[in-house]
Specification:
binds uridine-5'-diphosphate-4-deoxy-4-fluoro-alpha-D-galactose, UDP-galactose 4-epimerase, domain 1, Rossmann fold, alpha/beta, 13 strands, 322 residues, two-stranded parallel sheet, 40% helix, globular
């Protein structure tokens, strides 16, 4: 199968490219390299283009007859999305619309979308299953929610068959050390602690000590990026065998608080983490935990790398090497 991977040079995209290649897929990466990295990519066909420029998407489709498209390219910073919602709505919606319109025009109707736990907003039940109400609380989450609605409409109107994968907290790095988490600016918990320990940050802030959780810090569901990547391969297989649109959570159903993560990092690195407490960030829910039942049932997905020690150890190896 010939697959186009938009945003394939990014953190989750490049791990998925690697898994698809190992599984024998013919992969083309479409990326503008604004945040993606060429050295994250194995030997693969690359098309440098921008999803905001429909012509460049058409050129990529003129070159190859794709069977399916995976779409990872997105702006992902919740804080920035509050400060600059226009940037988020414009980029995340138009890039998705352009890609969908071109692929449908070229007769491609299989699509895997990188969605987020952010579509749920503040959870009313835990763990969160896919039928939980969708009430995103920040512009970033709204953009993911709107794309999901667009996908449903395109399914009805144009027979688009999609799987929207709702990621919880992607973390860890390739155990082989070829690729890992790099964001600029970095806002995520595990890299921020590790960068601080490596003297690449002056301080590390623990945001929020008054959440309604056992130790007062926020609880998240950390999922290893390699397990996330493998889920995409399974989703692609399912879509080929059973062309039905689905929304599927990707998480572990196990949560760690920020203080527990700090503790684990100290154990694994052998270094003390001297943190500064700070008020909660805008829009941080107290607890986000995924039900993984649907992913297991529909995709046959099993977790191999998502124990917290492997997540932190692979991330530490990656950041120490950079
Ligand atoms: N945190 C800190 N200090 C830091 C960074 C994070 O204390 O330097 C805390 C956050 O406040 C939060 C937890 O660590 O309580 C996890 O924060 P991350 O930024 O690592 O992840 P989020 O849960 O905020 O965000 C993730 C994805 C988003 C997605 C969201 C779903 O990165 O893209 O889950 O709600 F939108």
């Amino acid at each position: 199968m010939k697959i186009l991977i938009a945003g394939g040079a990014g953190y989750i995209g490049s791990h998925t490219v690697q898994e698809l290649i190992l599984d024998g897929y013919d992969v083309t990466v479409f990326d503008n390299f604004s945040t993606g990295k060429r050295d994250f990519l194995p030997s693969v066909r690359i098309f440098e283009g921008d999803l905001m420029d429909k012509k460049s998407i058409e050129e990529a489709f003129d070159k190859t007859d794709f069977d399916a498209v995976l779409h990872f390219a997105s702006l992902i910073e919740v804080g920035e999305s509050y400060a600059n919602p226009s940037k988020y709505y414009t980029h995340n919606l138009f890039s998705s619309l352009n890609l969908l319109d071109v692929m449908l025009k070229k007769g491609v109707n299989k699509f895997i979308f990188s969605s987020s736990a952010a579509v749920y907003g503040n959870p009313e039940t835990s763990p969160i299953s896919e039928d939980h109400p969708l009430r995103p609380i920040n512009p970033y989450g709204q953009t993911k929610y709107f794309v999901e609605k667009i996908l449903e409409d395109y399914d009805r109107a144009h027979d688009l068959k999609f799987i929207s994968l709702r990621y919880f907290n992607a973390s860890g790095a390739d155990p082989e050390g070829q690729r890992g988490e790099v964001h600029n600016p970095e806002t995520h918990l595990i890299p921020n602690i590790l960068l601080f320990l490596l003297d690449k940050r002056d301080s590390f802030f623990l945001y929020g000590t008054d959440f309604p959780t056992p130790d007062g810090s926020a609880v998240r569901d950390y999922i290893h990026v390699k397990d996330l990547a493998k889920a995409h391969v399974l989703a692609l297989k399912r879509l080929s065998l059973k062309p039905e649109s689905e929304f599927i959570n990707l998480g572990t159903n196990k949560g760690y608080s920020v203080l527990e993560i700090i503790d684990k990092v100290e154990q694994i690195t052998g270094k003390p983490v001297r943190y500064t407490t700070s008020p909660r960030r805008l829009g941080d829910p107290p607890v986000l935990l995924a039900s993984k039942d649907k992913a297991e049932r529909l995709l046959g997905w099993t977790l191999e790398y998502s124990d917290i020690e492997t997540i932190i150890q692979t991330a530490w190896n990656w950041h120490s090497k950079l």
